[in-house]
Design a protein that fits this description.
CATH superfamily of the largest domain: TolB, C-terminal domain
Largest sheet: 5 strands, antiparallel
Number of domains: 4
Distance between the termini: 86 Å
Length: 654
C-alpha cells in the first residue's frame, strides 16, 4: 500500500486500512494511514478520529499531534485543538513545527477579534446549480457562469474516491441560473480520466487557462496538476496545451511523489496582464503558495514571482482572485481563521497592506474558497459547509455594507522623446514598470505604437515609473497619488473611476548629447558638495545604476568672472568632487571621467552686447553636465570612494 500512497491513490489506501481497523480499531499504523489519506485528499474533518488513535513505529508523534489539532479545529472543536497545540509547545523537538503550532494557537486567539467586526454579508446556497456531487470555482463571463463539477463523469479519481471533475457553463443573469442551459465544455477541454477545474479568462473571453490533473496520463503532460491554455477561435475552443509557468520534472522523478509539483487555481487580473496561481513548487513558504506571472503583449507568460510572506504562510494559500475593484482575495488555512480554508482579502492603506478574514457567514469551519465578484457588492464562492447539497457547493452573496463605495484609481500616460526642433514625438514599444515606494514591482506594461500605458494605483501612495526602450536611456520618474484621492462621502455611485495623466520623456542614448544636471550649485570659489547638490547627484546615481552599460564624462563649467586659470582649476575640482561623490555611492570609477572646462564652453553670453554684466547668462554658464562617452561599459559594481569621511560631502560653504 505504500506505493499506492506515494502515487496519491488515497481512497484505495483508506479503504484497505479501514478494513484492518474493522478487525482492530486500535491498530495505530492503520489509523495513521487512514488519517493521512483523508488529510491529503482534502478530507481533514474525517481524519480526526483516526489521528486520535494514530501511533506506531516510524510515526512522528508530534506531527500526528499537530494534524490532530488541525482536524479538531476543522470540526469546530477549538478548545480541543488548543489543548493539542499547547501540548505540542512543550513536546515538539522540531523548531519549525513548534513555531507553526504557536502561530496556529495565535490564530485561535484572534477568532474573537474577527467576530467583533460587523459583517454585512448575506449568503445563500445556489440550489439551482448544486448537486450531491462537487460544484466549485465559479467564474462569471458575458452572461455565463463557468464552474467545475464531478456530476456526470463515471470514472473514479483514486485520490478521493469521487468522480473526476469537468468544467461546465450555464447561462445566467447575475445569480439567476437558466438550468436548462447547463452543459460541459467540449472534449478538447474535458477528458474522461483527468480532472479539469478552475477556469479563468482574459477580459475579451478569448483565452482560457485552467487546471488539469495528469496523474493518470503522465506522458501526455506534467506529473501532477498543471495549467493549460485554450483559445476561442472561429467559434470553438482550441486543443488545450500546457503552459510554461508549470514546474516540470524529469522522467526519473516519477518514482518519488514528493518531487511532483502541483500548479493550479489560476486567475487572470481584470486587465489580463497578470495571472495568479497556486503551487507547491520548491522554494515557497509552506504547503501551497500563491504566485504571479506576467503576460506580455503576445500572450506569453513569464516573470513568475512568489507573492511573499505577507500573503503566503506555512499553511496552504490558493484560489487567488484580483477583483475589478482592485481587491485581492484568496483562500488560506494558514492565516487566522475558523477551521479549514477561509476567504481573505488584502486591503491597502497608505502603501501598507492588511490581510483580513471575511468573517461569517462567508467563512465557516469548513472549506470556503473560490470567490468571484460579478458586481462590487455581489458574487459567488464555494463551500463544503454543513447544510449543503453534498460535496462542495456554490453559494451566492450580497454585501449590504451601507458605506460600500468603490473608487478605482488609474495612472495613464504616454512615452515621448524630444525631436531636434524640441517638439515631442511618441516612443513606441517602451517597457514601463510601476514600482512601489520600496522599489517592488507592482505592474509592468509594454506600450504599442501609441506609446500609451495604464496602471492601477492606490490613494496616498508614492511610486516610481521606470521606462525602457531601445536606443534610449532608462528613465526613472517619481509619481505620487497623495492629494489626488476623492472624498467617499461625496460619491453617489457604487463605483467611481479616477484617472490621472502623466508623460514620460525619454532621453536618446547618444554620445553627442550633453545632459545638464539641474540645481548642482557650489558656493563661491568652492568645490564642496552641499546637500542640495547631493540630492541632484543622487539622481545621476540612479541613472547610472539603471543604465549599467554607459560610461560618462561629468563636466563642470564656470562663468567668466575670475582668471581663466583659476576658473579651469575650480571647474576641475568641482567635477572631481562630483565624481568622488558618485564613487562613494557605489558607481565604479572606471565608468566615470571628471573634466573641468572652466569658462571655455559657454552656453550663453556672460556680458551683454554693450559690455555690461549679464547675470542670467552667467548663471546658465555655471553648470554641471554629463555626456555619454561609451555605450557597453562594464556593469555597475561597488566602488571605493576617494573621500572616506562622509561628512565632507555636506560641508557648509563660507
Amino acid at each position: 500500500m505504500q506505493k499506492a500512497f506515494d502515487q496519491g491513490q488515497y481512497q484505495r489506501v483508506a479503504d484497505y486500512y479501514l478494513n484492518q481497523i474493522e478487525k482492530d480499531p486500535n491498530d495505530g499504523r492503520a489509523n495513521y494511514m487512514v488519517a493521512e489519506s483523508y488529510r491529503l485528499s482534502n478530507r481533514i474533518k474525517e481524519s480526526e478520529p483516526f489521528y486520535a488513535r494514530a501511533q506506531g513505529k516510524g510515526i512522528d508523534d508530534d506531527t500526528v499531534l499537530f494534524y490532530h489539532a488541525q482536524a479538531l479545529k476543522a470540526t469546530g472543536n477549538y478548545e480541543g485543538a488548543r489543548a493539542k497545540l499547547e501540548e505540542l509547545q512543550t513536546s515538539a523537538q522540531d523548531d519549525k513545527l513548534k513555531k507553526l503550532a504557536r502561530k496556529t494557537l495565535d490564530g485561535l486567539s484572534n477568532l474573537s477579534k474577527i467576530e467583533e467586526k460587523p459583517s454585512y454579508y448575506k449568503v445563500k446556497n445556489l440550489e439551482a446549480i448544486n448537486t450531491g456531487f462537487a460544484e466549485f470555482s465559479p467564474v462569471h463571463l458575458s452572461g455565463e457562469l463557468y464552474f467545475a463539477s464531478s456530476r456526470s463523469n463515471g470514472s473514479v479519481y483514486e485520490a478521493s474516491g469521487t468522480p473526476y471533475t469537468d468544467i461546465y457553463k450555464v447561462a445566467t443573469k447575475g445569480a439567476n441560473i437558466d438550468v436548462a442551459t447547463i452543459s460541459p465544455l467540449p472534449s478538447v477541454i474535458n477528458e474522461d480520466i483527468r480532472n479539469e477545474a478552475c477556469a479563468t479568462f482574459t477580459p475579451d473571453g478569448k483565452t482560457m487557462v485552467f487546471a488539469k490533473g495528469n496523474t493518470k496520463q503522465k506522458k501526455k503532460g506534467g506529473f501532477d496538476v498543471d495549467l493549460y491554455i485554450s483559445r476561442f477561435r472561429n467559434g470553438v475552443w482550441s486543443a488545450a496545451e500546457i503552459i510554461n509557468i508549470n514546474t516540470q520534472f524529469k522522467e526519473e522523478d516519477l518514482a518519488t511523489a514528493k518531487n511532483y509539483s502541483w500548479d493550479s487555481t489560476p486567475s487572470f487580473s481584470s486587465d489580463g496582464r497578470t495571472i495568479y496561481f497556486s503551487s507547491n513548487r520548491k522554494g515557497g513558504y509552506g504547503g501551497t503558495d500563491i504566485y504571479s506571472a506576467q503576460v506580455d503583449s503576445r500572450g506569453r507568460f513569464g516573470k513568475v514571482k512568489n507573492m511573499g510572506p505577507d500573503i503566503n504562510t506555512a499553511g496552504d494559500e490558493m484560489f487567488p482572485y484580483m477583483a475589478d475593484n482592485g481587491k485581492f482575495y484568496f483562500a488560506s488555512d494558514g492565516h487566522p481563521g475558523y477551521g479549514m480554508l477561509d476567504l481573505f482579502v488584502v486591503n491597502r492603506l497608505n502603501g501598507k497592506t492588511s490581510i483580513d478574514n471575511l468573517g461569517k457567514p462567508v467563512n465557516s469551519t469548513a472549506d470556503d474558497f473560490g470567490i468571484f465578484l460579478f458586481r462590487p457588492d455581489r458574487g459567488f464562492f464555494t463551500s463544503n459547509r454543513e447544510g449543503g447539497k453534498g460535496d462542495d457547493d456554490i453559494y451566492t452573496f450580497i454585501n449590504e455594507d451601507p458605506n460600500l463605495k468603490v473608487v478605482n484609481y488609474f495612472l495613464q500616460g504616454i512615452t515621448y522623446t524630444y525631436k531636434r526642433d524640441s517638439t515631442l514625438e511618441i516612443v513606441p514599444d517602451t517597457h514601463v514598470t510601476l514600482l512601489d515606494n520600496s522599489g517592488e514591482v507592482m505592474q509592468d506594461f509594454t506600450t504599442g505604437t501609441d506609446g500609451k500605458f495604464l496602471f492601477r494605483t492606490y490613494e496616498n501612495e508614492n511610486y516610481n515609473l521606470l521606462a525602457e526602450a531601445d536606443g534610449f536611456l532608462i528613465k526613472r520618474q517619481p509619481f505620487t497619488m497623495k492629494g489626488k484621492s476623492v472624498d467617499l462621502t461625496t460619491l453617489k455611485e457604487l463605483v467611481t473611476n479616477i484617472t490621472v495623466d502623466t508623460v514620460i520623456i525619454l532621453d536618446k542614448l547618444s554620445t553627442t548629447i550633453a545632459f545638464e544636471l539641474k540645481n548642482v550649485y557650489f558656493g563661491f570659489d568652492s568645490a564642496n558638495i552641499n546637500r542640495a547638490a547631493a540630492k541632484e547627484l543622487d539622481k545621476l546615481v540612479e541613472i547610472l545604476n539603471d543604465n549599467p552599460e554607459i560610461k560618462i564624462e561629468l563636466s563642470s563649467h564656470t562663468d567668466s568672472v575670475g582668471t581663466d586659470a583659476k576658473n579651469m582649476d575650480l571647474s576641475q575640482r568641482r567635477a572631481s568632487s562630483s565624481v568622488n561623490y558618485l564613487i562613494k555611492n557605489g558607481i565604479a570609477p572606471e565608468r566615470l571621467v571628471a573634466k573641468g572646462y572652466g569658462e571655455t564652453k559657454p552656453v550663453a553670453r556672460n556680458t551683454n552686447p554693450n559690455g555690461t554684466d549679464n547675470p542670467a547668462g552667467r548663471a546658465r554658464n555655471r553648470r554641471t553636465e554629463f555626456r555619454i562617452l561609451e555605450i557597453g561599459a562594464a556593469p555597475v559594481r561597488k566602488g571605493e570612494g576617494e573621500i572616506d569621511d562622509e561628512d565632507k560631502f555636506f560641508k557648509k560653504d563660507n
